[in-house]
User: Fold these one by one.
Assistant:
Number 1:
Amino acid sequence: MSLLPGIGAMLIFPGGLSLLTASLLYEWADHKLLALLQNRIGPRWFQPFADSVKLLAKEEIVPKGVDRWLFFGLPLVALAGALTAGLYVPLAGLAPIASFPGDLIVVLYLLSLLTLGLGLAGANSLDRFSLIGATRTLTQVFSYEAPFMMALLGPALAAGSWQIATISAYASGHWLALTQPLGFVVALIGLMGKLEMPPFDAPEAHTEIVAGAMTEYSGRGLALFNLGKAVELFIGLTLISALYLGGVENPLLFLAKTLGLLLALTGVQALLTRLRIDQTVGLWWRYGALLVLVQWLITILVR
Amino acid sequence: MTENRTPRRFTIPIGPQHPALKEPGAFQFTVDGEVVTNAYVRLGYAHRGIEKAAEERNWIQNLYLIERVCGICSHIHALAYCLAVEQLANVQAPPRAQAIRVLVAELERIHSHFLWMGVAAHEAGFETLFMYTWRDRETVMDLLEGLTGNRVNYSANLLGGVKFDVDAAQADSIRTGLEFLEGRVRHYLDVVSHDATFLQRTRGIGVMTTAQADVMGAVGPTARASNVVRDLRVHAPYAAYPDFPVSIVTDPRGDLEARFSVRLRELFESFRVIREILDRLPAGELAARMPRRIPEGEAVIRLEAPRGDVFYFVKSAGGDQPERLKIRTPTICNLTSVVRLAVGHQLADVPMILAGIDPCFSCNDRMVQVRKQSDGSQELMTWEQLRQHGIEFYRGKAQ
């Protein structure tokens, strides 16, 4: 790969700027669909862009008692992690920009950087809401992360490869959501847990702990975390469509499948009440992990 | 920096400003991890001096003021005041006026319970239920507006009667509206008693036994959800309730689910009473003549507001102004239970337990007695002293 197209692919299309734009549009779609389901009007299409621009331009207030390096660095690391993960997934149905055997594991870890960053950002603060939020964020990581990771490794087992491009190519011929329904459900719900969407929004339950770990973030840091979440939603949807929904060979199929998944996610968000953190942990370890293990067993036995 | 992070006595402040509270009230919850070990409440952030202000105005002007004690149950306060003054003047409002008063009071109850359910669902993180209930609440708001001209402060009462009549067209629109609302309430009752994730947050949470409810002096639906059989519409019927009786709705379980269930099932009684009133509205005058000066005397009135027991004490010295007006709203009676019940629960349940009593802080803030920390003595200021203190305080500020 020559240098210039490589940099272009990373910074402009399909990674970088295009990835950010698409993510914000998907965030809008999420908000708008949820609003329609809840009998509200919802935001206009440019609202996430406007929010990001406004927050990026705002003065960043550094609270007393925080480590400045961590305070400014963590949002950057979180967003960078999410954007880097974008290099290895088939964005918009195109081939991944970079690929190597085992990149699936790397992507999963890169996606976790955001949650880890959130937890550390909350723990870095003296604010009591942030501390409780950080505790909850990290508790939630430990509950959904393992089942989510195992659920995404299910297709890898079936395809016999740990490389996203290979699994994706294998999945094009196979609707793994049909052959591995349990893993598919766990992966989808796991994505919701990862993004702290309702009903897994206990870490930022604003009627209890204001904004959780992000309470003390006001300007740029908040914008970067929000962008990171939007990017992660987009990448998560891409990954699950590619692995479970029969692959994404072209942009049209990609659009249809990811939007279909998003609709399912908003439906779940609208239907359920927020879970307490102990209920979240119980749910993941009592059912989530068990379901995935059963799925693995079936996959290994049948294959 | 390290002292603040010691795990012991980690206190979460909820209020005076907090997203869970729509009005200022300060709660301190000491938590051990996620479990609440101690709770503390401080009130007085929204004290408006209404009782004192009432002494400065004449009987008629007070009607306007009293209507504004509470933004949600405004009618019941004006009604309590009117009934007390009528009792002092020994005037009986005509039956038609009494029936219309009850009609508005019950519509207000519907509006209040819908609003509460939305808030409670929001505290639980069930935004969809919040949005749906508030959409449906618009129906009853429109009915009230069509009837009285106002959405919030209905201004229905006069001393000695009511200001408006109910005609056939209005009665029909109310019937149609009730039809829709009844279907919705039936649906919500189904949701709050069968939705699995919602029940996880309400069933067995914040259980208050009947004995506890008695000791803590809980009132209204909060008490009835703990099987306390007490409803002033039944036990001390006022206005037109003797002619249009309601039956008491209770629940033996005492948890949050019971509070949802009681409030929603209560609405069916409201629907029934409103329909009965519309069907057999007594004929006659809308208001009786009231004297300008109210004879000397004292009156005590207790009414069943949507949130529970409202208490009014009115004292007249025979002039055109009240000598003393005392108001006690239901929230102050129920707040004790929040502080008691929160202990031992998860932090996540606290907003729900708080919302479970349907708190209204601005209504309940009355007077603050400042106790000196050194010797525990109390210092009370007279009106004149307070005025002087204010003048001197701000003069000091200006310099």
Number 2:
Amino acid sequence: MTQRTNKLHSTNRLLVFASASLAGLFVAGVLVPRHAALAASNPTSTTTAAASRPDPGEAVLMDALGAELKRAMASLGSDGAAAQQPKPYFLSYAVDDASSASISAQYGAIANSREDHVRSVDVEVRLGSPAEDNTHGDHRISALTTMPLPLTGDRDSIARSLWFATNRGYARALDGYLKVKTEQQVRAKEEDASADFSAEQPQTDVLPPAPPLAVDRAAWERRLREISSLFTQYPDIIADQVEFTASNETDYFVSSEGARVSNPSQVARLVLVARTRAADGMDMFRAETFEADSPAHLPDQKTIADKANAMAKNLEALRVAPITEPFNGPAILSGRASAVFFHEVLGHRLEGQRQRGDEEGQTFTKLLGKPILPSFLSVADDPTLATFQGTSLSGHYDFDDEGQAARRVDLIKNGVLQTFLMSRLPIASVSQSNGHGRSEAGHMPTGRQGNLIVTSSKTVPESELRAMLIAEAKKQGKAYGLYFEDISSGFAVTTRRSPQAFQVIPLVVYRVYVDGRPDELVRGVSIVGTPQAALNRIVATGDKQDIFNGICGAESGSIPVSAVAPAMLVSEIETQRQAQGTARPPILPPPNATPGEPVSKKGAN
Amino acid sequence: MHMLLTELQIKRASFVFLAAMALSVTTSVSYAAPPQASAQTSAKDDPVLRAMQAELDREQAQLLLPGMQRPYFIEYRLDDVASYEAIANYGALVREESSHQRVVRVTVRIGSYATDSSSSRGEGTITLASVDDSPEAIRYSLWSATDDAYKNALRAYSAKQAALKRFEAPPTEKDFAAAKPVVQIGPIVALDLDRAEWTRHIVDASGLYTSDPQVSFFAADVQYSTASLRAQAVNRYLVNTEGTVVRQGYAGYSANISVGGQAADGMQLSRDNGTVAATAKELEAWPAFRQRVIDNLKSFEALRHAPVVSAEDYHGPVLFSGDAVADVMDRLFIPNVEADRPEMGTTARTQGIYTSSFHARVLPEFLNATDDPLTTTFAGHTLLGAYTVDDEGVPAQAVNAAVNGKLENYLIGRTPVRDLPESNGHGRAALGQAARSRSGVMIFKSNAPVSAAELNARLLSMAKEQGRDVYSVETLGGDLAPRVLYLIHPDGSRELVRGAVFDELDNRSLRSDIVAAGDDEYVSNSLGAVPTTTIAPSLLFDDIGVKRATEEQQKLPYYSPPAPANK
């Protein structure tokens, strides 16, 4: 059976993953934004609620959250059946309220078109003490209970739902806490004996909610049909998917520490994916994402159509491109490729929770204050940036999913590791959050990236970078260097059981010959090696930074992220041939290439 | 509320409105060679069927991997599913969702009817198709899925040939039963539901626990109160290389209520039920549905205060209501007369308990079981399980599964088993899934029905004869555990009890313990993956075990629910 067959019962959203083979910890343009980025062009969004009045539904919700939280804290461990039980030392309610529209097209026609409004609450209950609570070790999830909430401002119903979820959550937390205490008695001393929850200042900043979602679906359906049908003009494109999503979301957070925060966000995203298969069975795809704060700010149809045609032509060229040979030599990663590379190879390994825990590989744990990159490179994660050089950044937010204010974090300064991406889960070297506790609804927040920004003090124009690549290849006695124009993420393996390797999937790679021959497109390249090695071989960067917006999936769910980086020259990169499929290309040509039955005009009906 | 109708759907909806006028007219089934359009609508007028047929013709003529076999059979099925769902908790809407999707399933068979590439997992490739009636896009989806299915079938065929070599004797049954081509173009079905009205109803229903004075005095004991509405309209298009062309649709609607909580000792108690119908108009009207909710709440409260069933085992008479019998038969009888082919390498006839029960007695002599998908209504109910052509393009037939208690026939699709070389029109498929043998409208009927009063009298006389209390069960939960169970005293008075499970309620009890059947046929429509109907009378069993459930009780809520603020 094909992968497609296995995935069928779900919606076609998953099919994009399936058909494009995107899995694991990935960055890729995609789908349903859950915690989406705030309107870049909406400067008022950073003003406080005092300036604009929240709508009545929101006021009811915030009141009910506050009142029920207070009542639960006063009752649990004091009243009734819980009188003999521990009182929670922390309780929070995190509400996600998201309205979205999503449309997908394939083969020039609409496959799915829908609107949705969901509102749910994540109840987090902590028992014990911050030093050791029910979330310790593998029991993080014992703090979390998720429940749908009324879509309307019905106070009684909201309160009753919160009660039900809190009661259930408290029972789970009790169970988790008992297990933690038992396990701690029998296990050996932990390598990292940090507390389970950091002490933080509660934030109180209720921003106005995101405006109602307004999408002209009929118009977007017409646009998607048109874009998708472009791919059917190319007989070797065997599948395409054009996905449009727009989402307006407001997250609310209240806690027993006094936090009271709301965080609106808006995003519109268009993703194109197309796929071809070479005669030898190698599958290849290209994906392109466009992102803006609202559908109206997405690029015009011509820009997107041009990109679709370019993708299709590129795939046709790739399909017949020669297969790569194993290579060990110099390469340039384009800005976009570098951005993905840094997100996967560096960013994930700087997430705080990966520095503790028995299963984590802890690549950088002991390297705080030490150089891990060449000294001309610095890396920050700055979720407070809504745009970069005029482009919306996906990874922007005002408050993280633990109610902490977003802030810029300098992770690496002049090559030296400064800190990690921290949620409220402390580690030996960092005891506090730095506003990077992020999660999708229904997941426990962990330290995650927002907008990862790589800057360089050793920049050269890209033409010069190319000259340096050729010089380096010559010096190493190679006939060519490689130019990675586009890479997609594979999966970053950070656990101890697997080798400390990363996999990013190069999509578009050229050989740049030293003898002046034109660049040659090759296919089937995969990068191998260990992360530190690759990072330390960066010798210079370009002078223009490029942006990658996407959705990143990990243990705390799928969240929008951005990565910004300049092109990089790497003195040595090791590549090998990709593992590939063996299925032949389609036996018959696509139906529109067949004489006989006339095919309709696209977008008829 | 979102209006999710696209322009296309609106057009179709108005067309369907006209078509629905003619819905009561039986659609005609014609055997065709060559296919001819005898129905009012011809396949040529339907852009979906036209696209499917065009791609099928092309693939049949041209699909061949050099040096390999051509398919001997290709089938395209397109399931067009429109659905709507709304859920309310505690008197407020928490979810409202509508969707429209099309899934195509392509089956390619290599080899011959005698031995082919099929396996018990069901063959085929599934993919999404456009909801636009774009012939090109639909053909693209079919093209891509056919290519995959053909390659998979080639692999499966050689693997199967190799596997068969392990066995001394070749299989005695064919892999696939031939079927005469059928052309039937039924009317297109659409969702027909006043969403705003029903959304209001389920919101109100889920809030009755606190808003209606008949029940609100125990609102604090109701831990959850959820009402939901589900509506689905499925249009199924089928073409195959034998010449079959079928378009048929069905709709199903259900409104459900679920209330629950705990007794003082912690026992989890709930009432969950609803109304299921083939048209929204046949759903219970609001007053009746509202009453259902109130009754459920009262029943939940009564259960909370009911005594726990005796700790000592009971073996003796139990009267099952028609509702309870339908659940028992759905679990114990029907799956076992659906002839599923066993795994390769066994000589068994079918999977399940009745594999060697052909012509043997499986029910009491006075009981008959007939599956008749052609029965469209019963006692004023439209039956959800009814259909005229099955999902493999075979006309539905009434099948006498049990006659005078003896198993005389199995329900079967186009995958033959021993003694059943041909389909009897029971190959039915869940959305996007392969067809399997499934029942449609299973009717249990006694040769000697007795009135409800008589059945009760018999139960009581058994109680008197045996000088003890007996049981009567009204509804069951999902695992055949009693939900509403009464202890019946010999004087005829009854007492609700909780916390019981049945012991030894199995196929042997169906064969040997049923002593009488009522004349009160209960219609159970089920809107599952494959819609089915079971019609069953109440049954008196003379020897069923009743014992106390042994699960530990959960803790009661750790704190009290919030007091209503704005009531």
